Amino acid sequence: MAYVTKATTSGGRNGRAVLDGGGLALAMALPKDLGGAGDGHNPEQLFALGWSSCFGQAILVLAKKHGLDGQAAKVTCEVTLNINDGAFSLAAELKVALPGADKAKLQALIEDAHTICPYSKATKGNVPVKLTAV
């Protein structure tokens, strides 16, 4: 085991989420798009933050292999919450911008990073993901 973290939430989407040790605590709120006040954070936002950061690290790890310098890469993770017949599901798009990079090389790097990123591996087969070189 390399690392473990723990968070506890009370009140669900309209509650409070706290990391073990109190290093981060967030007010949670149902988004306005779903009829909530939108005056806090939601799970989809937190998922997008985590995945974009994790994917960015995968880009850094593999960039040299693809002949690119990953230091200037910017990763955007767009998470969509879908509702179909009362059932909820997620979809995502990972967009990577790397100024001056050849698009074909960048796309190959993105696809490679998608194979090692823990978030990508955890969602494989469960969440449709679009990979885009910007």
From TrEMBL:
It holds the Pfam family OsmC. GO terms for biological process: response to oxidative stress. Coiled coil: none annotated. Transmembrane segments: none annotated. InterPro entries: KH_dom-like_a/b (IPR015946), OHR (IPR019953), OsmC/Ohr_fam (IPR003718), OsmC/Ohrsf (IPR036102). Gene3D superfamilies: 2.20.25.10, 3.30.300.20. Belongs to the OsmC/Ohr family. This is OsmC-like protein. It comes from Nitrobacter hamburgensis (strain DSM 10229 / NCIMB 13809 / X14).
